[in-house]
Structure formats: C-alpha cells, structure tokens
Write a structure and sequence with these properties.
By secondary structure, this protein is α/β, with parallel strands linked by helices. It is built from 3 helices and 5 strands; from the N terminus they run E-E-H-E-E-H-E-H. The protein has a 5-stranded mixed β-sheet. 22% of the residues are buried. Its EC number is 1.8.98.2.
Length: 113
C-alpha cells in the first residue's frame, strides 16, 4: 500500500474527483516535461493509475457562499491530467479560509464572494 503525505491534509483524508475546470491555479507552474510524461504514462495504464497520489486543494467558502478551489502544489500531476484531457483529478479537499489563502497570495488575494 502506498501512503502519500501532505503538509495540508491528513493521509487518511477522503479523496474526491474534482472537476479540472473548477481549480484555480494562480501561480504559473514550472514543470519537468519528463516527469509530466511519466505521470501521464502511469495514469494511462489502468494497472498503475491508482499509484498517482491525489493533489491537495484548498476549499474556501466565499463571503456570499461561493465555493473556491485553489491548487498550489501537484503541478506535474495537474499537467499530466490536463495533457490527457481528463475532466477530473483526484484531490483531497482541505477546508480553508481567506486567511489561509492570503498566506499564499499576500496582497494579491481576491475578494471571494
């Protein structure tokens, strides 16, 4: 059994299929193409697909009830899913606050509704 760890989420946290279209990725990634291709190859094989660990996603409720899903890590996994045209990515949703988001974005933090 493979165990992945994260600075954000519990190793036993529930994993969700999150639509790629809802993820907000405010920091442009720098990726190693070989690593992205390797992950894409792993995802393309039903026997190894489950070896790719989920990404962590900050789930923030806006001031008027909107849901916002911010992803800062998992750049290679995200890119591999994107290149394969996958509509969903496995993710651990980490309930967060605007204060948590501000620690990543500082003064660039948007007003979430």
């Amino acid at each position: 059994m493979i165990h992945s760890s994260s600075i954000h989420s519990d190793a036993n946290a529930e994993v969700h299929d999150v639509p790629m279209s809802v993820l907000i990725r405010p920091i442009p990634p720098i990726v190693d193409e070989g690593k992205v291709q390797s992950i894409a190859n792993t995802l393309s094989d039903p026997d190894t697909e489950s070896l790719v660990p989920p990404i962590d996603v900050l789930w923030i409720k806006g001031s008027e009830g909107g849901d916002y899903y911010y992803s800062f890590g998992g750049c290679h996994r995200y890119a591999a899913h994107q290149r394969l045209g996958r509509p969903f990515i496995k993710a651990k949703l980490v309930r967060s606050t605007i204060t948590d988001l501000r620690s990543y974005l500082g003064g660039s933090t948007p007003d979430l509704k």
